[in-house]
Design brief:
This protein is α+β, with helices and mostly antiparallel strands. The chain folds into two domains: 78 residues, Glutaredoxin (3-Layer(aba) Sandwich), CATH 3.40.30.10; 108 residues, Glutathione S-transferase Yfyf (Class Pi), Chain A, domain 2, CATH 1.20.1050.10. It is 47% helix and 8% strand. It contains nine helices and six strands, in the order βαβαββαααβααααβ. The strands form two sheets. Strands 2-1-3-4 form a four-stranded mixed β-sheet. The protein has a two-stranded antiparallel sheet with strand order 5-6. The longest helix is centred in the middle third of the chain and has 18 residues. The chain starts with a strand and ends in a 9-residue tail after the last strand. The model has no long low-confidence stretch (mean pLDDT 95).
């Protein structure tokens, strides 16, 4: 038996990215089923995976359980694989990581609404609102606090679930050219160079046609990420 993960378009579904990254980053086997957001058959695909399912990602466990939220998937995997380093071992850092994950899961609505994740291209000339700038200021503050003791490129040095949850934020900063400090840009660069994320982005280019929902009406730029090594 194995894990089975249902996701949406890789280029656009930030929550699907959060559901998939723990498997790729921590070498946990999973079978992936993908579908396309907004098409007529999307609801049917969800219902075929699990009755009553209304969103992605969703995960079937080897024991027959069903997890229908990215944070539930994260907590389950941290518990199921305590030796993989999904969360920091030091208690205070572990608590901080859990808090950062929860804040990302429930917050930063202005940033998420104004800057939908789009890994197919970047945008030139985006002007962030005051609310988006406020979200960015809070994100920079918590990133800086976490990285004060880090001995590596990620929030707690080594890659953890906290980085999983902030990966789509880093992609928004890169894709919309959002104004952040050099220190925050270095953290964004660590995500852009992370092999699992590069693999995800490459797979997304073949998911299907572009989704017009994500058109910003701005000049397009190449997305600033290199293809994965083959």
């Amino acid at each position: 038996m194995e894990y089975t993960l249902l996701i949406g378009d890789r280029s656009y579904s930030s929550w699907s990215l959060r559901g998939w990254l723990p498997f790729a980053a921590f070498d946990i086997p999973v079978r992936v089923q993908s579908n396309i957001l907004y098409r007529a058959a999307f609801a049917d695909d969800l219902a075929a995976f699990a009755p009553g399912l209304r969103s992605v990602p969703a995960l079937k466990t080897p024991q027959g359980g069903l997890l229908t939220d990215s944070i539930a998937i994260a907590w389950h995997l941290a518990e199921a694989f305590p030796d993989r380093g999904l969360l920091p071992l030091e208690p205070a850092q572990r608590a901080m990581a859990q808090s950062l994950i929860a804040e990302m899961h429930s917050g930063f609505g202005a940033l998420r609404s104004a800057c939908p994740m789009n890994l197919r291209n970047a945008w030139a000339g985006f002007t962030p609102s005051a609310a988006v700038l406020a979200d960015l200021a809070r994100i920079e503050a918590i990133w800086a606090t976490a990285r004060d003791r880090a001995e590596g490129p990620f929030l707690f040095g080594a890659y953890t679930l906290a980085d999983v949850f902030y990966a789509p934020v880093a992609m928004r900063i890169a894709g919309y050219g959002l104004p952040v400090s050099d220190r925050a840009q270095a953290y964004v660069a660590a995500h852009l160079n992370h092999p699992p994320l590069r693999q995800w982005r490459a797979l997304g280019l073949s998911d299907g046609p572009e989704q017009p929902t994500y058109e910003m009406g701005l000049p397009r730029l190449p997305f600033p990420i290199t293809p994965p090594e083959m």
